[in-house]
Amino acid sequence: LTKPLLVDGYKFDCRCYVIVTSVVPLRAYLFEEGLARFCTTRYEKPRQRNLSNACMHLTNYAVNKRSSAFSAATAHDAGSKRSITSVFELIASEGGPSAEELWNEVQVLAERTLLALRPALLECVAGGDRGALHPAG
């Protein structure tokens, strides 16, 4: 990305949760909350001098939890891990799309992802390989 969306100068990602309860018919539910994970170093455009700064460019918890700047705040709207709702509301308050519009985009993305996966899901179910869909496999 040439111009990532930043919150307070930091890159972040959004983690959403979807549960598939049926493949035929395809039925899934999007949990109405999620997690936003933040980098612990303010973002700067990638340059040779900062490319190795994982805490600036990667939002992974495993990377950022080791940073002295990691904030394990207990409030849902502060720190290095925040509720998606609080981040969406902040984006809206700063003139961005409304939280409802952002959630609608998340829903569309989840639906399209499941539709793209549907052939593979059907193949697993048809082959009786239900364990392949389980995290413990």
Describe this structure in words.
The chain is built from 4 helices and 3 strands. The chain is α+β, with helices and mostly antiparallel strands. Helix 3 packs antiparallel against helix 4 (99-126). The two termini are 34 Å apart. 10% of the residues are buried. The model has no long low-confidence stretch (mean pLDDT 91).
Provide tags for this entry.
single chain, 137 residues, alpha+beta, 3-stranded antiparallel beta sheet, globular, 3 strands
The overall average pLDDT, rounded, is 91
Q: Beta fraction of the residues?
A: 15-25%
Provide the succession of SSEs: EEHHEHH
Distance between the termini: 34 Å
Q: Return the structural class.
A: alpha+beta
Low-confidence stretches: none
Q: Please give the count of helices.
A: 4
List the helices and strands and how they pair.
Blueprint: E1 12-22, E2 27-38, H1 54-57, H2 61-64, E3 81-83, H3 84-93, H4 99-126
Antiparallel strand pairs: 1-2, 2-3
Helix pairs in contact: 3-4
Summarize the structure.
By secondary structure, this protein is α+β, with helices and mostly antiparallel strands. The chain is built from 4 helices and 3 strands; from the N terminus they run E-E-H-H-E-H-H.
